[in-house]
């Protein structure tokens, strides 16, 4: 954190001014003198080794070291409490109420921070004064006598915790919560104080407990299936292979050699399929050296699985079982019944302009360029012969003026700006208005207006959006109109024009193209063909006909590749794999045109396939994202104990990454590039 | 594997000679021509784009792609089989027996490789010829008619699998197992063919399944305790801090900055204790950049846990519950009852010369230098005033000659050599022999011989070993006589002189010194004091008296540090932690004398402690090692799917680590040191 360069709002660093006033020789292992300027410890100068005066912080610590063990946790206390019994409880102090000079109340919150109990302190007891010297939130051990509660319930009491209170006999301070830190359930702490956020924010702690439960339910489903899946750990010190994403490297002490952290256990799990272990799963830590987004971390956890003698359908059925068990055990919403629907990539791209659409709010896209007069197309786009698509957003209260206002706000907002500046033409906006000529669709001309009315069935006050794009097959994750549909709906919800959709609409998006045009901006698979594997280069063609297309037109081949999508979020994706070494090598070498040395990086995989590997298929669910979706969280950061927060992947709390020392660089035979 | 430089015993690489004979332009995404020289695929030269002739490997793959789904797994088949039903089963072919030209038998092993079934093929069916063309071990889908078994049981039948057989109707080859690979249950494959080892070695696959079960049982015990432990994932992209071991670094794209892979989740879990999450556990991947040993891998898994408001005793009781549940669920040996015994470090070092002794075979050590005549001490060691210790190894059959032969063999063996060349003096060897003057103890003189007899109570033919060491308090993991005791016993077992001990003798070794003299050979904690923390610098002193010793003589302070030991193996270790920031800083700064910049690396931890962190304690069990001990394996490699095998931490199978490319180095602003 010293290196993070962030201003601390809290004076938590004060003890860094501690210094030894009189210090023994650095070489003597025995410390002769010490002084501390910590705020609640007076400095102590010690002259005699024989009978040193203990600095006050060590005196305080001696007492904390020998604190009494708890006789009960709070749950067993509440179920077993008997009047007049003496008990010891551990917990955190709440705010103290001094009812008189002789009587104070304080609530004690248990270590789980789920229960609390009223403690009564009387002036006749010496613990009374000690209690008064302690700060709120400080951890304590409390010895007291159980009694039926006499006082009125204080705020925050739970019925079950309202029966008993403790008459204070002894209180052992275990540490001190600084007065300077203001901690309420509403306080938002900076990322570097994540421990304070966790401690003050019950929802965040509950999210971590929920995550652990979700983990267990996934495990149960897989381990109880027949034949059962086996959880197998695979190495994290892997090697660099051109799968797609940029990998973190881990240099070794052998000059020039490095491991790579895996972007997924893909190759190891395929090798397990060649190893006579037919059903594998793992909660696998994965790594991608990419820039941070709200839903992406440089390290993340995926529920990774693979099945041999299996096709994509087998994997989808298995994962549906996982989803069904998660929802029926942990969610109020009903678990999805039956097989989830399978929607081909071409269809979701056409209907929603996205390969991970949120299908809950309609606004389906239709292609209308064949209906439009040439002059209207020319107004919408400078492209020659573009595809023009349209969708409808229903207005509220049949009020075109309100709709006008909404769309103007959107187009003027930062969310709308990128659509306005689309070089292929901005959105064509029409408000359907029964009081205007051709209901506001004049630019369509009579014939097209009628056909568009028939297709979109607009009501008075509805919004109709047109968007052009170049005439080309679908590729990638979205189209301009798909992005517009998503952004416009999000703006409608955030601005209150529409209410947020509820529930969960799951689907499998299937039949992705096996290959997509390469993008220069990604590290890619290193091939020279101008094509990249859409999923990864291990993905199998779907049918025998797609195998045929490998030779004639690989860009048309369909993959046995399936993404699980819910509410506009891709929960995970998987595929059947190529289990035949010759075919895999053909894809690497002849289709992707990887150079020989990159191809050599995969020789272990090819060898394993060649050793009689059975057909296999698998999937990885983004576990952080799955939990975030279940809890309705915007960001995976809300379901990770210690997320990276900075754009560069900083752990602001511990202050990572840090500068490599000269010594460390030398150990790894490295130096910084000048 | 190309880079591993290992000769391949198997010709698995042959398909790397595949090359395109006629190749289209590199820039056309459409592949016009292809040729394969793979051994069972004839090369095919394709001239026409319009109607290319499919290479034979693609033809074969088309069939494999559309293989029929299994109607049953073998377990459900065995429970539901009905005569004359048609079923499809998946599995691997066994060796075929051709009973006549018209009748063949072959066993089909299921994908789990736990069950098998007899398949009968008759010449009248076309599958008959196809079966004959397939290699043993090849994966297939088989369609057949269920019938009661007629033929005599063949070798390897299990009773439950002996009732039914399948009359072959169709067979779908799914891949081809190369004839060149000889695979029997006894074959030992080189590490680069780990998949073949896994596939051929049922014990190895069972070890992985056992490991997964052990994982679940540990989880259950912790999650069902009250209050429950919560499994929480902590980051692997951490930062470099001077805890003790050398850390792997992960350079980032920001020049000079790197993450470090954690040697344990120690700091994050302590911060969780400051975060209101009172009981944490995790199966945590940990990393140490150290040279490989049989029981150490550069990456390993530990069952990591931490409890707040707890002392060492609380952790030990929790872990005893884990061990008890593991043993009672998974082991034939009885689960250890009651609390495991606690043995102080000073005691195990004195009695066994080791801080992780195998206590099952006696041979306890006694200190005898005060009894010995000066001239005998002088013969044993050149040291001035050494400590001399002794133990007894019981001979067999009261036969001194046999004992003589055994000890001579040991001392002449590589195992004995290091003890002979001990600069402080080699072992003093005496065989107790009732037929010799003073029973062979003449060099002791009458008085000492009598006292040694009384202490060791030797019988005719027993071996008595003396060993000197410098007069100094115990430190580190073992003494020379402790190492000798261990090595001598191991040799006695391996040479057949003694039988191997059985059962499990658990203990907690407790009361370790808080600090030990620094060793120059380790990266250490970077302090200048000549002292290092024995466990790690977060370990708490045990009692108030030990807190006092921090000022007067820290080397005498005892830690609340406990190691779980069984049969000479340290299963794990833990400690109570310092939960007070001022005390922790005092240890860092004034006792260990860390430089300010290293101390700054821990500021996140100090800040978290300062925010009212409760007392806490924890432990990490080496999970690989635990499983290896439970299964009686010598090496953790036998319980890890893909272990590193080379001394330098190579993954021989995938061929990691690999050279960093110029591009990768540049991405991370690095260059190799010249």
TrEMBL record, chains A, B:
Keywords: Aminoacyl-tRNA synthetase, ATP-binding, Ligase, Nucleotide-binding, Protein biosynthesis. InterPro entries: Aa-tRNA-synt_II (IPR004364), aa-tRNA-synth_II (IPR006195), aa-tRNA-synth_II/BPL/LPL (IPR045864), Asp-tRNA-ligase_1 (IPR004524), Asp/Asn-tRNA-synth_IIb (IPR002312), GAD-like_sf (IPR004115), NA-bd_OB-fold (IPR012340), NA-bd_OB_tRNA (IPR004365). The keyword Repeat does not apply. Residues 219-657 form the Aminoacyl-transfer RNA synthetases class-II family profile domain. One of its GO terms (biological process) is aspartyl-tRNA aminoacylation. GO terms for cellular component: mitochondrion. Pfam families: tRNA-synt_2 (PF00152), tRNA_anti-codon (PF01336). GO terms for molecular function: aspartate-tRNA ligase activity; ATP binding; nucleic acid binding. The keyword tRNA processing does not apply. Belongs to the class-II aminoacyl-tRNA synthetase family. Type 1 subfamily. NCBIfam families: aspS_bact, PRK00476.1. This is Aminoacyl-transfer RNA synthetases class-II family profile domain-containing protein. It comes from Penicillium frequentans.
């Amino acid at each position: 954190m010293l290196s993070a360069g962030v201003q601390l709002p809290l004076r938590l660093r004060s003890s860094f001014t501690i210094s030894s006033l009189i210090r023994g020789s650095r070489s003597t292992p025995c410390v002769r003198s010490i002084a501390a300027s910590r705020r609640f410890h007076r400095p102590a100068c010690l002259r005699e080794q024989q009978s040193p005066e203990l600095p006050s912080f060590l005196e305080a610590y001696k007492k904390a070291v020998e604190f009494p063990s708890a006789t009960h946790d709070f749950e067993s206390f509440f179920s077993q409490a008997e009047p007049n019994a003496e008990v010891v409880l551990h917990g955190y102090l709440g705010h103290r109420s001094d009812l008189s000079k002789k009587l104070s109340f304080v609530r004690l919150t248990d270590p789980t921070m789920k229960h609390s109990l009223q403690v009564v302190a009387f002036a006749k007891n010496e613990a009374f004064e000690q209690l008064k010297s302690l700060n709120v939130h400080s951890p304590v051990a409390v010895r007291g006598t159980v009694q039926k509660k006499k006082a009125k319930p204080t705020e925050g009491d739970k019925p079950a915790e309202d029966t008993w209170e403790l008459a204070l006999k002894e209180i052992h301070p275990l540490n001190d919560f600084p007065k300077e830190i203001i901690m309420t359930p509403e306080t938002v702490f900076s990322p570097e104080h994540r421990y304070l956020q966790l401690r003050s924010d019950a929802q965040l702690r509950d999210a971590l407990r929920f995550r652990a439960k979700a983990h267990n339910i996934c495990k149960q489903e897989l381990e109880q299936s027949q034949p059962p899946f086996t959880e197998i750990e695979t190495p994290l010190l892997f090697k660099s292979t051109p799968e797609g994403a940029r990998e973190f490297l881990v240099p070794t002490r052998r000059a020039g050699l490095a491991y790579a952290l895996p972007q997924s256990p893909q190759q190891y799990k395929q090798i397990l399929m060649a190893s006579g272990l037919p059903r594998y799963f793992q909660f696998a830590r994965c790594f991608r050296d990419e820039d941070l987004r709200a839903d992406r971390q440089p390290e993340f956890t995926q529920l990774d699985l693979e099945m041999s003698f299996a096709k994509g359908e087998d994997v989808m059925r298995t994962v549906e079982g996982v989803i069904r068990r998660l929802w029926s055990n942990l969610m109020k919403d009903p678990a999805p019944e039956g097989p989830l629907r399978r929607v081909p990539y071409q269809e979701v791209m056409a209907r929603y302009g996205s390969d991970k659409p949120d299908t809950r709010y309609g606004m389906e896209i239709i292609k209308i360029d064949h209906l439009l007069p040439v002059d209207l197309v020319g107004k919408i786009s400078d492209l020659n012969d573009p595809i023009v698509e349209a969708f409808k957003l229903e207005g509220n209260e049949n009020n075109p003026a309100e709709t006008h206002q909404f769309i103007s706000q959107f187009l003027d907002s930062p969310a709308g700006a990128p659509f306005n500046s689309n070089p292929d033409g901005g959105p064509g906006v029409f408000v359907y208005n029964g009081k205007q000529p051709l209901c506001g669709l004049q630019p369509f001309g009579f014939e097209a207006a009628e056909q568009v009315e028939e297709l979109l069935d607009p009501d008075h006050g509805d919004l109709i959006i047109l968007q052009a794009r170049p005439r080309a097959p679908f590729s990638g994750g979205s189209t301009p109109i798909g992005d517009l549909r998503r952004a416009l709906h999000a703006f409608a919800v955030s601005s209150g024009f529409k209410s947020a959709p509820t529930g969960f609409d799951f689907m499998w998006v299937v039949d992705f193209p096996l290959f997509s045009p390469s993008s220069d901006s990604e590290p890619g698979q290193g091939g020279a063909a101008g094509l990249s594997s859409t999923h990864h280069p291990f993905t199998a063609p779907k049918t025998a006909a797609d195998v045929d297309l490998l030779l004639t037109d690989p860009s048309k081949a369909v993959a046995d590749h399936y993404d699980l999508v819910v509410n506009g979020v891709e929960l995970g994706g998987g595929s059947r794999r190529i289990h035949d070494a010759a075919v895999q090598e053909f894809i690497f070498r002849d289709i992707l045109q990887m150079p020989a040395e990159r191809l050599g990086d995969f020789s272990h995989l090819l060898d394993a396939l060649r050793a009689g590997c059975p057909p296999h298929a698998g999937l990885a669910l983004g576990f952080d994202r799955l939990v975030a979706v279940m809890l309705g969280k915007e960001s995976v950061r809300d379901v990770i104990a210690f997320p990276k927060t900075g754009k560069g992947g900083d752990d602001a709390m511990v202050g990572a990454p840090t500068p490599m020392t000269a010594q460390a660089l030398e150990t790894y035979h490295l130096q910084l590039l000048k």
